[in-house]
Design a protein that fits this description.
Its EC number is 1.1.1.290. By secondary structure, the protein is an alpha/beta fold. The protein contains eight helices and 13 strands. Helix 1 crosses helix 5, helix 2 (73-93) runs parallel beside helix 3 (129-144) and helix 6 (222-232) runs parallel beside helix 8. The longest helix has 21 residues, at 73-93.
């Protein structure tokens, strides 16, 4: 099997290494392919440009894992809608019909649920441009493969943390963290589990569904997470106060459908995940 990674940043690279470990040939499209490990065949590609490199004729699965260059609507549209369109056009141009295409999306498509539960059956109601653009991309990929043998799947990931993704840790360390005065649920997934979910859904024997929510087992209150990090680092608990608007809305995302496929988490909650991150940085308090 040849796996094409259209967009091969941190998450795509980790998924690529896992595909390679399973014995697959992995081709990674990236603006700077020299940065990719040898296990991934790097090919220079700018997904924002209409002309992309040839798609390997034996491509059996495509993973589209792009990222916007900046937090603006234009940048999101250029990456997630235009970039996706260019990848799909390249497949059509070269007459390649992979068995599966997976698009990495976000739980931002749900917007705010006032702390309630959401899952794949919950109607998407994005509250900002990021969720609206991602939902448009999800609809685009379903429309392009409607009636074809290719299975198109969107994986809606929560906030990714892990090596190099230490925003909350940094806030607790530098004293800028604020515990919200209200209960504010958060949804996250460790980078390694996100990559493992991509590989699992792309290679599992059963035909995947059109949409999966990719979050861990504990949509914990932000205050609980911040207090945990402070304790783990031997620091004073952050103060409570006005924490500003909730990032991504206040909701609890349910991962039951992903778990029903047989997927298991290495880091089932933020506790195991952040302890591993802190151990890797050498700043965990004994």
């Amino acid at each position: 099997m040849t796996i094409l990674l259209a967009g091969c940043g941190d998450l795509g690279t980790e998924a690529g290494l896992r595909f390679h470990a399973l014995g697959h040939r992995v081709v990674g499209w990236r603006r700077s392919p020299a940065k990719l490990p040898s296990a991934i065949e790097g090919v220079a590609a700018d997904l924002s440009a209409p002309e992309l490199p040839p798609v390997p004729a034996d491509t059996t699965a495509v993973v589209i894992a792009v990222a916007a260059d900046s937090p603006s609507e234009d940048a999101y549209r250029a990456s997630y809608v235009d970039g996706l369109t260019h990848v799909l056009d390249a497949l059509e141009r070269d007459g390649v019909q992979p068995g599966r295409v997976l698009f990495v999306s976000s739980t931002a498509v749900y917007g705010d649920a006032a702390g309630g539960w959401v899952d794949e059956r919950t109607p998407a109601a994005p509250g900002g441009f990021s969720g609206r653009v991602l939902l448009e991309a999800e609809q685009l990929i379903q429309a392009r493969f409607s009636g074809l043998a290719t299975t198109a799947t969107s994986l809606r990931l929560g906030g990714i943390y892990g090596p190099g993704r230490t925003r909350l840790i940094d806030q607790v360390r530098n004293g800028s963290a604020v515990i919200p005065e209200d209960v504010r649920y958060t949804n996250r997934i460790h980078r390694d589990d996100a990559a493992a979910a991509i590989v699992h859904l792309t290679t599992m024997a059963a035909r995947p569904e059109a949409t999966y929510v990719g979050v861990d087992n504990d949509p914990a209150d932000l205050g609980t997470v911040l207090r945990f990090l402070a304790t783990e680092m031997g620091l004073t608990e952050p103060p409570a106060g006005d924490a500003g608007p909730a990032r991504g809305g206040n909701k609890r995302c349910r991962n039951s459908l992903l778990l029903s496929t047989g997927f298991t988490f290495t880091y089932p909650t933020f506790r195991e995940g952040y302890r591993a991150v802190l151990a890797g940085t050498g700043i965990r308090h004994p």
